[in-house]
Amino acid sequence: MAGRPVTELNKSEVLSSLFSVWDGIDAMLVGLSEDQWLASSPLPGWDVKALVAHMIGTESFLAGVSAPQPDIDVAALDHVRNDIGVMNECWVRHLREHSGTDVLARFRAITSERRNALEGMSDRDWNAVTATPVGPDSYGRFMRVRVFDCWMHEQDIRVALNRPSSDDDLGVPAAQLAVDEIAATMGFVVGKLAKVPDGTRVLFELTGPLARDIRVRVNGRAQVVDDFGDQGPTATIRLDGLQFTRLAGGRPMCPARPQNVELGGDSDVARQIVGRLNFVI
């Protein structure tokens, strides 16, 4: 899109976070029983194995590997809503009969291939504009989206296995980058999804290990801003940082963390935003 700013991100920081998430997922999967691989996740229709199959599929796509042909019309499944969902489900169906050990081996193989490719990428290619899930932007932004996606699935696996993240688990750079990616979408959420009135100033107050403030001003269009100048927010939303990521990702809240959502200022507008926080495709 002409005039759209390009996001330039530090390659080393993004890749170290992405690789650390892959390593963390790998460590959680080691030694799982077949029953644990089949444990239901917070995502409809997907168990732990399906989550890993999805990540295998996305990294395979980025490595130029075509999705396998499914055994059914996956577009007809209730939880498949778009072409990306169709691709995801092709991999889920393809790997569902494979053992957990085999799926883990495939995960290790494709992430190893992707590590090598990403580490060898030039800065020019890293900053080049490409198609991403959030529109045309740098390849580096795409990889921050991958940090977000894989980190979110790590949390899904943790919920499925009843191994919720500790405060220490949440205090890592990858978690902060995932929240960075979510924060960057809040203008879209507030303006396009929630459609709040012009003049609204929204403050998201995140608490816990992922604590931060996110501000969105609506002045003709909704934009994330550093501050409101000498004005205060017109609506505030205060909740645990991990729970914020769960709602933004269309997931139920994590049972292991505080679930209260405090609304302030124009509570009707704040409630409207909370109801439309889910931005994932």
Automatic annotation (TrEMBL):
Q: Where is the Mycothiol-dependent maleylpyruvate isomerase metal-binding domain?
A: 21-158
> What Gene3D superfamilies does the entry give?
dinb family like domain (1.20.120.450)
Q: A GO molecular function for this record?
A: isomerase activity
Q: Does the record carry Transmembrane helix as a key word? A: no
Q: Where are the transmembrane segments?
A: none
* Domain MDMPI C-terminal: residue ranges: 177-270
The answer to whether keyword Isomerase applies is yes
Q: Which UniProt keywords apply?
A: Isomerase
* Full protein name: Maleylpyruvate isomerase family mycothiol-dependent enzyme
Species in which this protein is naturally found: Mycobacterium kubicae
Q: What is the lineage of its organism?
A: Bacteria, Bacillati, Actinomycetota, Actinomycetes, Mycobacteriales
